[in-house]
Amino acid sequence: MEFRLLPILAFLSLALVASHAAISPELYWKTVLPNSPMPKAVKDLLQPDVLEDKSTSVNVGKGGVNVDAGKGKPGGGTHVNVGGKGVGVNTGKPDKRTSVGVGKGGVSVSTGHKGKPVYVGVSPFNYVYAANENQLHDDPNTALFFLEKDLHPGMKMNLHFTQTSNGATFLSRQAAKSTPFSSDKLPEIFNQFSVKPGSVEAEIMQNTIKECEDPGIKGEQKYCATSLESMIDFSTSKLGKSVQAISTEVKKGTKMQTYTIAAGVKQMAADKSVVCHKQNYPYAVFYCHATQTTRAYIVPLEGVDGTKAKAAAVCHTDTSAWNPKHLAFQVLKVKPGTVPICHFLPEDHIVWVPNKKTGE
Question: Which of 45, 86, 52, 39 has the alpha carbon at shortest distance from 176?
Answer without folding.
Answer: 45
